[in-house]
Structure formats: structure tokens, C-alpha cells
Design goal:
This protein has helices at residues 11-23, 36-45, 68-79, and strands spanning 3-6, 28-31, 54-56, 62-64. The chain is globular and about 30 Å long. By secondary structure, it is of the alpha+beta class. This is Glutaredoxin-like protein.
Length: 80
């Protein structure tokens, strides 16, 4: 399952959600302002910063503020 760490006010997050929806890619959204563990994960993969959107993939890997192309390429790589 793909997890998107986000905030309600993040424009980049809204854009990526729309793109994932258009591509038919399933994901779960976690608000880092409501979930301290999620914020800690985001900080752990972003040099201490709460940068969103951060995506966590089923294999445990993560991408920060990726393009939809990067998401699709990464999903293809980890499913191969």
C-alpha cells in the first residue's frame, strides 16, 4: 500500500493526490499534523524536516515531493 504523508494546507499534496487519482493508483493519506508518529517518519527520511508530500511505498522506501512520473517509475521498479 502506498502512503502519502500530507497536511490539509499543502498545495503540492493536493496536486499529487489528483494525479494519483487520475492514474488509478491507490493510496492512504496520513496527516502529519494529527499523527506524531507520521511526522517522526517524515522527519527521519527528510533530514529532520517535515516535508510533504512524502510517499512511503510497500517496500519501506520513500520519495519526497515526487512527480507522478517518478511515482509510477518507482512503483514499477519495486514490483519487478
Amino acid at each position: 500500500m502506498l502512503t502519502m504523508y500530507s497536511t490539509p494546507w499543502c498545495g503540492y499534496c493536493h496536486r499529487l493526490k489528483s494525479q494519483l487519482d487520475r492514474e488509478g493508483i491507490g493510496y492512504e493519506v496520513v496527516d502529519i499534523e494529527q499523527e506524531p508518529e507520521a511526522a517522526a517518519f517524515v522527519m527521519s527520511v527528510n533530514g529532520g524536516n517535515q516535508t510533504v508530500p512524502t510517499l512511503r511505498f510497500a517496500d519501506g522506501s520513500a520519495l519526497t515531493n515526487p512527480t507522478i512520473r517518478q511515482v509510477k517509475e518507482h512503483l514499477s521498479e519495486i514490483s519487478a
